[in-house]
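Bug report (template v2)

What were you trying to do?
Predict the complex of my protein with iron/sulfur cluster.

What happened?
Run completed; filing so the output is reviewed.

Input:
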Amino acid sequence: MGFGQFLSAPEVKLRIVTYRDIFQDSAKVTSLFGEDYEKLSAIIKLDPKDLSKLAIKEGDTLMLKNGFGKVVVKAQNSGYEKPHTGTAYMVNSPWSNVLVPEDAGGTGVPEFKDFEVLASSAKGAKVTGIREII
Amino acid sequence: MDNDNYVCTGCALLCDDIDVGLENGKVAKVHTACRKGFAFMKGCSNPLECTVDGKKTDVDSAIREAAEILRNAERPLIFGHANSSSGAQKRAIGIARKINGYIDDTSSFCQGPMVEAILEGKLKTCTLDDVRHKADVIVYWGADPANSHPRHMSRYSYFPRGKERQRGWEEDRTAICIDVRKSDTAEICGESGLYQIPVKGDVEFMDALVSALSGKIPKTSYDFDKKRLLELASILKKAKFGVIFAGLGMVYALDDREPLYRLMDKLNSVSNFHLIPMAGHYNMRGFNQILFEETGYINRVKFNGAEILHGPEYSVVEALRKKAVDAALVIGADPLTSLPRSVVRHLEEIPLITIDPCQTLTSVKAKVTIPCALVGVESGGTAVRMDGVEIGLKQIVETDRLSDEEVMIRISEAL
Ligand code: SF4
């Protein structure tokens, strides 16, 4: 499926914060190439207002891109009581690492936990597989 | 350690109370471990095979090829080590020295700054056993042990009874979470225990706490509730034995360690506070300690004859970004999983050797892959827990795979 078809979808700028998840981490230990690891990694947790802005529902796929790469992941409602429009959460994984900026300002430490992406609906598209990432 | 129990190498907590059940010479049941530890000790479903250029081969040929690659390289990199036994780490440093190579580990883009400050004596620290027996105020700062180190709170930091904390979490301990979101750990700390700050708001929060501890009005540009900050300062001040668990959220928010030093100095002038870095992989801290003893640096080293070079330019990230290295040996890590995709691309352009019990994203791209035994299950040795305590690891089951240390010895000899 070409990416061109999503050009008309609204684009929303998001600040991404990454986190750890025991279920996803265990799935990696069991099988890095397995379905469970993909299912628990290729996700983004959004504020409900951002879901509306993107004209998508929970479970729809979303394309995330910036100057470093692009991935298709599934959207989830974060469920956090405190609103966090404009900030979204991704579990630390090869999917988030596609988008982490390369330039570490000479420090040797990339901005794993704080970077920006442009998000747009990718309804109907499949999430990016781990073998496509490498 | 009780002799009948084993150690889980699933994370840097190195839980030493693990009981296993064996079936047909394999670990079939794992008691007391968490979900991750259970998965780890049962072993991966994709074991690594011994290959050269994608073709299966015997260990001797793969080791010969690996040595050949390292010998021919002008600027080789040896990276990983966080999931390696201390014995293998020592050998890796020896190899890097022999071939004038770069050597770095995952702490380079993780907990390095905290471990370095501790080893240099700049931060007061304690052991997890001290925490279990004495800690009454526990601060999880940018840390979410409920997910990263699942038994942290139950074995050491919050729930257990300790010698001086007989009434446990219900009455004897106060848990505080300082984070940018309501993590699972924050849920445990409760509504009053969570101090939710904006992304990168940590430095201002530290300085505001120093003000509050000095009796001044604490101010932040994001207008954090002053009353709550003063309440927090009062809790910290009253601590008999306080501990801050520094997570990656805190580490990545600090451009330098000065704000943390200011806070720790202030805390220790009015109270009694320690800091433990939340190292993730089971022996990252071990590597840092060994390299520190040998070179005076914990990571980011390049050997150059008798000279030892050190600095961010020798970090794995900068060395790969700048394409400064022309061959790489990766052991006990998976940079293709853990580093930005754009940074690790150079690994695909140079001869790459991977040593691991399991297939990894890095091994998929490697010219030479050498399987090793799973440390703590198929081979023994030692490792260093997140608090700096050395833990002995026992072999549980037999294997025909070489231990990670044996692989490194063989490569060193072949050089
Ligand atoms: S907390 Fe860490 S060391 Fe303990 S059982 Fe879980 S993975 Fe293993």
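What did the reviewer find?
Chain B touches chain A through 51 residues (CB under 8 Å). Chain B has two domains: 45-109+282-414, 112-277.
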